[in-house]
From TrEMBL:
Source species: Aquibacillus rhizosphaerae
Xref: InterPro entries: CLS_N
Residues in Cardiolipin synthase N-terminal domain copies: 4-42
Cell compartment(s), UniProt: Cell membrane
Membrane-topology descriptor: Multi-pass membrane protein
TM regions (residue ranges): 20-41
Pfam families the UniProt entry points to: PLDc_N
UniProt protein name: PLDc N-terminal domain-containing protein
UniProtKB keywords: Cell membrane, Membrane, Transmembrane, Transmembrane helix
């Protein structure tokens, strides 16, 4: 569930599809750590 949210949020913020797919894969394999890292870097 967090993977889908991260993917959609990355697209909604105007990021490329490639970036969104990397976020999706990162949060699939490392759900908690990947989500925390994404939330930190998404505000940049």
């Amino acid at each position: 569930m967090t993977s889908v949210w991260s993917y959609r949020d990355a697209l909604r913020n105007g990021n490329s599809k490639e970036y969104a797919i990397i976020v999706l894969i990162g949060t699939l394999f490392f759900p908690i750590i990947g989500l925390i890292v994404y939330l930190v870097i998404r505000n940049d």
